[in-house]
Design goal:
Elements lengths: L6 E5 L4 H10 L4 E6 L5 E2 L5 H11 L2 E6 L23 H19 L2 E10 L12 H20 L5 E7 L6 H4 L11 H13 L6 E4 L2
Parallel strand pairs: 1-2, 1-4, 2-3, 4-5, 5-6, 6-7
Helix pairs in contact: 1-6, 2-3, 3-4
Length: 210
């Protein structure tokens, strides 16, 4: 039976992981790229209205995938109690957590029946590093949301998360933070997006390289 060609919105397609995901999915499907300053359409994860406009501009979609999500890397000793808007954690909460949550919520009402949502976290959810509390907290929040949302999604919709270790292509910048970690290529991490988009599972965390 021939494989159905899907129309997929990929957020963060200009990043290292996003480019690999686009290359992987384009082999079989139509990929619409989105980002704050590049891509086929503009989408700012920190702006819920921008997310909804982008999804509306895409027209009918079978899948939405996020290969992005920003956080701060800052030693815990430099952080102080603060309101959310003034906190050192704000970028991770606003972008990686609520940005991806809002993307999923907007996609929920727009995807075709049986469509899929794929979000991104990372190894720091369970393997913390120095200066990484923002990333660990954000990753944990997103994964908890995915597991819970999978229980309630309507119309046969599915939601999963891809959680890679540090990427080989990013080691020049992040090696001091990830001593002893074995990196994986972005292309290997991208395979998990295919597993999420083209598979049948929901509520899963696909760990890559750890």
């Amino acid at each position: 039976m021939p494989e159905k060609k899907l129309k997929i919105l990929l957020v963060g397609a200009s990043g290292v992981l996003g480019r690999a995901v686009a290359d992987e999915l384009r082999q079989r499907h139509e990929v619409v790229t989105a980002g704050r300053s590049s891509g086929d359409i503009r989408l700012d994860l920190t702006d819920p209205a921008s997310i909804e406009r982008a999804l509306d501009d895409c027209g009918p979609l079978d899948a939405v995938a996020s290969a992005t999500g920003r956080v701060n890397f800052l030693p815990l000793a430099e952080m102080r109690p603060a309101r959310t808007s003034d906190s050192s954690y704000f970028l991770g909460l606003d972008d990686k957590v609520m940005g991806q949550v809002n993307l999923a919520l907007a996609a929920m009402t727009r995807l075709a029946d049986g469509g899929s949502i794929t979000l991104t976290t990372g190894i720091l959810c369970e393997q913390p590093i120095a200066a990484g509390t923002s990333a660990s907290m954000a990753n944990g929040a997103v994964e908890a949301f995915v597991r819970a949302a999978a229980v309630e999604l309507p119309r046969g919709l599915r939601i999963n998360v891809v959680s890679p270790t540090v990427l080989t292509e990013a080691m020049d910048a992040y090696a001091p933070f990830f001593r002893g970690f074995e990196p994986v290529s972005a292309a290997r991490a991208a395979l998990a997006f295919s597993r999420s988009v083209e598979g049948l599972q929901t509520g899963q965390v696909y760990k890559v390289g750890w």
